[in-house]
Design brief:
The structure is a homotetramer of 330-residue chains. The first copy, chain A, is globular. Chain A has 13 helices and 15 strands. A seven-stranded mixed beta sheet of chain A has the order 12-11-7-10-9-8-15. The first copy, chain A, is α/β, with parallel strands linked by helices and 330 residues long. Chain A has helices spanning 11-22, 36-46, 54-59, 75-84, 99-112, 126-136, 158-162, 167-170, 173-183, 201-204, 276-279, 281-295, 305-324, and strands at residues 2-7, 26-32, 49-51, 65-68, 88-91, 116-118, 143-151, 188-196, 210-217, 222-228, 236-243, 246-250, 258-262, 265-269, 328-329. The mean pLDDT of chain A is 97. In chain A, α4 runs parallel beside α5 and α5 runs antiparallel to α13 (305-324). Chains in contact: A-B, A-C, A-D, B-C, B-D, C-D. Chains B and C meet through β7, β8, β9, β10 and β11 of B and β7, β8, β9, β10 and β11 of C.
């Protein structure tokens, strides 16, 4: 068994704990968490060691993987420590909100080459990954356009929103990463952004309710991402790859495959799987399998530190585009 | 232009008149109809000759096609007269409710070989015909099963129902014919039938609200037809061909291709095209094109007198199966 | 934890073992199996007790649930023994191929009222169960027709087929049960059957490749079931409930929700989930949850001994209908 | 009957001639065309008057409607003449490539208030119009986003492309208009554009193969339009309206509603209706009905001169955005 120390037992950390617990190769050895009742919850659910001082965890030779789902501003520190103690690393997105901190650590990453996997779960979704494979198999010819629709069913808490880094760094970062995933070696060179808010709350906290971004790659591929913090009909997650010889779609998943037909309406279908825990359940499981294989040295990471850095760079460029009402060169 | 005399200007006759009027090769020369206000309506709409004595029509050398949409019990007489006067014939289904009358005329049909087309409009539907072509192209391998669902949005008038000949001869006759169309040379040899009525009216008039028929062909193909005199969600018309190597479906058509997504429901679609006039609009137009080509001697008829006879034979076998609670050999 | 003894570690038994192992309330304590290499496999995978003498299992007070997935002809004996030792019972379908043996045990079931759940997994499928709930909520008004399509991707081994009891008792038994599930208190009173075989193998072993059954309930609901031992495009599992005010469908599930569009073809989708292990994965898990709750006395069983008996009775009636080419009264 | 004079019998003019000929209220009285063989073709098909001097047409009192489908640079002149002679006007898009010419005529339009309908056929499409009505009925709450995908199956001839005015004025003008149609009184205030070309031909003629435009309305609605001059899988025409309480889609139409299931692929559907003549057939017919009603004074025009002017203004803003790599204020 591979021993995992989970840092952070908040909303997303709890989901990771459950997934780690189910994985046949991984064992949840430690949970590091500061809040008391969360510690108790972790203890009760997984009967693992609870630790309030993270240094003991890093020093424990039995710990194989450091699994970082603590607040964003702790990520870089934990990555540095993991590199020093030669641990395999998982880190939630975003790496940090300060790109300079990231760049500094990037040097160590290049130098010490730790085994590291970023929390870009969508790369592991069977549907989203299937169209990547089909694209690479040339099923639609040369890629010309990527269109991503990503809408959360409802916004997170105001507290979360305030420290989230904003819609581009917190939410669209997944979509920047997916565009880069499909583009492969062809990097994005130009960015334009538009945002809009109907609920005045968003302006107060200097965030945005809706965002649209257009980007262009070196080879001329156009990428369009559209985000919304809310979506009355559920977690809307769609990807469209338009190529010279065809189109690939990865669509939404409904809670079951039943339909109702009645007077004046046909094919009424069930709602989408509610949110990321349900929608990307398989993706999270498959990503953990890769993490175990990465630790064993069997595979390369599908989502690297560099991916985390470059996605954030695009998010920052969007803020610049908004401020100057300009197309921004990357 | 090819001159057409339309016999019968009732509900279906009026639809045919409009279609004939739109066809670029056909001219509506005569309408034969006994009811005064229908005659006026025909005159007003099409400015054609109105005739109450059909003999004058048959004797008029200018008439090329006799188009029979009069009451069922007049069909055979009009076919006989058309054969005698060497007219091209279109005849609505069913040929007659009395199979002996049909058999007698069948001899003349074999002898004089008139150009005749039966009103099996569904054979001409682009979707239904497309799966026939794909079947013949071996896209699904050897045919093993045919499943037809056919439901009317609502029952016809009580007056119509009473003289309709019953659900098998009036409604399911289209589906018997479609099974035979897909089977090609492989004829049906055994039949089983079940019916049911929830509205007591159907028992009073000795008809049935719902009917299910299973049939087996000489080569072992199983055919299942399910009919209903009503369907709250519209005119339900579906065909499924199951073969050794695949399946072909011809599905319903909706009034437009829009969808609504809202809380708790997704992909809500528009209702089906309402009834045969709308659903089989293209089929009727294509059938008229074939009728014109048949008259010109360019093509063979896709739906022959024999098809009309054999479909009725199956309908009759169903009544026998019901009465004796047995599988009936054809 | 509730302790489970699994009797039979064949193909389906192995699937059950894995599901039991994943269930948070159940513990796999024993596996009873005669074949040596299967015993070793069970030991290795689940580290449970392996027992070749079933009496010791029944006598062990620690055993709460007897889980029967051994060959069909052992089911009744194991149920009797479970009743005697007051165990909670799960039993795979069919109960037995001999209806008289079943009837005898039925008396004990009525007398001693054991906690028993039959292996009718489809009743627990989220989709199939969702339309049952919607039907009971009157979403489509009065039920008038049930149409079930059930096709296996490919036939089982010849060895299995020979002792399976035939397509009606082995395969369609699930569909008989589903019809009864949707009908509720309204029992089936008449049955008609048709079969067909294209591969000569089926005739040699006196079984059938394809089968179609029509049934009628006391209240007049028509039920149509169509089965095939093979299906080139996967495990085809569809249910249609037609009511006075609407229709409910429970459709197939595809391996992901991607689509490909290319020249001359649009919306090309992925194949269906391969077979029962994948397609009814959730159903099996939910059924085990119910089994645990049944043992705890929290719920009634959704699939009873009587359900097992009545489904077999319908299967037998189908053979009678085939032999006498008649509609059979139940 | 309302007499129509058709100016221009090129590709689009010929389609209009056929539609006018089919309309029950309209009569094709004149065709004005300079190219000889086109004149002969018009004469042969419609037996109408052929005129090479347009003044005679404007002076003919019998002419009710001037139907302008001649080259773009003649539109404004013909509109002016029509206003002078008090004719009802239909004019193809774009009004002109020179916005100053348009502005000058706009003054006369405001002064003399001619009955005029612009060639924005998509406003009349049953699907696209149905979601407009549903939006106005508040089915999705407040509108927040419009996403339009519009791809032609293949580019027009090089000759056409060279004088087309470019992708924004020739092709996306329909989509600018549709956005304005859905926005109602809420006008667009900001525009961003991106383009890309993979085929070097487009750069040579200073046009673009692909284009993406983001726009923002006064009230904050985000509009995203994506165009392509080619689309291997057909004429891709989709509209998505995202509102606070739901989403409306108007989707593609396939040539029939059949599906093929085979090993490893399911639900393979037929291609989209090929191009605008087929896809917008009903829209063109409905627009002609409105034109007849407009002439009779029964209705207001759904697509006005102002709509033509404002769509072109947006097209021009896109070129400015491209040139200066900036967000452009309207």
């Amino acid at each position: 068994m591979i021993n995992v120390a989970l840092l952070g037992f908040g909303r997303i950390g709890q989901m990771h704990a459950e997934n780690i617990n189910k994985n046949k190769d991984l064992k949840l050895l430690y949970v590091y968490e500061k809040i008391d009742f969360l510690c108790k919850k972790a203890k009760k659910l997984y009967n693992c060691k609870i630790e309030k001082k993270y240094n003991k965890i890093f020093q424990d030779k039995k710990v194989d993987i450091i699994f970082i789902s603590s607040p964003t501003n702790t990520h870089i520190n934990f990555i540095e420590k993991s590199i020093f103690h030669k641990k395999t690393i998982f880190c939630e997105k975003p790496l940090d909100l300060n790109i300079n901190k990231i760049l500094k650590t990037f040097k160590n990453v290049k130098k010490y080459k730790p085994k590291i996997q970023l929390g870009f779960n969508r790369r592991y979704d069977p549907g989203h990954f299937s169209i990547k494979k089909d694209l690479d198999k040339n099923k639609i010819g040369k890629l010309q356009k990527i269109i991503i629709t990503s809408r959360d069913p409802s916004p997170p808490s105001l507290t979360y929103l305030k420290s989230s880094g904003g819609i581009f760094r917190d939410m669209m970062i997944h979509d920047f990463d997916l565009c880069r995933f499909y583009l492969g070696m062809d990097e994005i060179v130009e960015v334009q952004a538009f945002t809009s808010s109907f609920d005045p709350m968003y302006k107060k906290i200097k965030d945005h309710e809706l965002a649209v971004v257009s980007m262009k790659s070196k080879k001329g591929v156009l990428c369009i991402i559209t985000n919304s913090r809310h979506c009355s009909f559920g977690y809307d997650q769609r990807i469209e790859l338009f190529g010279k010889k065809g189109m690939l779609l990865s669509g939404n998943q409904k809670i079951d495959s039943t339909e109702l037909f009645k007077f004046n309406q046909s094919s009424i279908q069930k709602p989408f799987l509610n949110f990321f825990v349900e929608r990307y359940k398989e993706a999270y499981a498959l990503q953990l399998n890769e993490l175990a294989d990465l630790h064993k040295g069997k595979v390369k990471s599908r989502s690297t530190f560099e991916d985390g850095y470059l996605a954030l760079k695009l998010a920052n460029a969007c803020y610049k585009s908004l401020r100057f009402k300009k197309t921004i060169k990357i």
